[in-house]
Amino acid sequence: MKVSALFLSLLSFGLTPVASAAAAAPQTAPRAATQVLGTLPPAPNRPPIPATPPRTATETMPGAWVRPGEWVSLGGARPSYLQAPAGCPERACPLVVVSHPRAQTAERLRDSPQVGTLIEALLRANYAVLLSSDGGPVTWGSPSALSTVGVAHATATRRFHWNGRTYALGLSMGGLMALRSALPGSPYQVSGVALIDAWVDLDRAWGSDLVRRSEINTAYRPDARPIPDLNPMVKVLAAPPMPLFIVNSLDDTTVKASLNTDRLLGHAQQGVSEFIPLSGPHLGGNRFSPAVAQRLVNFFDRLATLPLRGAGPGETAERP
């Protein structure tokens, strides 16, 4: 793709003002209506959560629980950022790990008003949020990057009242990391994956553009096309169906939906997964509307009704 197109998509994602509520409402693309895959169980009832205090960037003493409502930096030169919700000290909460688009950082996500709409909805619903550095701006879900996120996850889950459940949210390039973290070999367990305009086929990304190819070669350190074992798309096709929340658009010329997330629909777990087709360009404003944010929360809520993978009958999901 041309660099100018990427530059414009990044500007649209992080810097343009949020559209009005009417303009930001999801617009259904002609191909299909929004659909929940299978019969939808009711979301669990939750007690009201206190309003989240204003966010600030701060550093707390290592090992201490984070103060709700504050962003805490985890790591050094390329930090991840953790925030716990206001209700978490009294009631254990799950963690959502957010992986960023190409050429971006956790700081960029933290400061983006569009992404802030999703984050604030999650915090209000008693989800802790980890904005992942993904090991760098162009790591493309590499094994080294996944190890870095694993360290951040282990650190983060000792800094708040964690209930043992982790979910992943991947934006654009971050889809590779989000999907890979839910597959065998991940350093932490993921109970559900949300993908917005996401790359999920590493081989397609490698073959789509010479600049992307160079970045992927550097991240994976091969001299040629990455082997299939490193491609999340190949691995997910061989895995059992998983809970998926997919937002994409046929108008997206940066990440072609038909070659990426559309191919996951047959591998989504029935009854809890959801597919939201929108219109508009890559990472357009309607992906970050309050309506989409609420549906994202509802998706993660539905997963709370499922047994935690690896936990036997009567076992708690919380860390001992």
UniProtKB/TrEMBL annotation:
<feature type="compositionally biased region" description="Pro residues">
    <location>
        <begin position="41"/>
        <end position="53"/>
    </location>
</feature>
<keyword id="KW-0732">Signal</keyword>
<protein>
    <recommendedName>
        <fullName>Alpha/beta hydrolase</fullName>
    </recommendedName>
</protein>
<feature type="region of interest" description="Disordered">
    <location>
        <begin position="37"/>
        <end position="62"/>
    </location>
</feature>
<dbReference type="InterPro" id="IPR029058">
    <property type="entry name" value="AB_hydrolase_fold"/>
</dbReference>
<feature type="signal peptide">
    <location>
        <begin position="1"/>
        <end position="21"/>
    </location>
</feature>
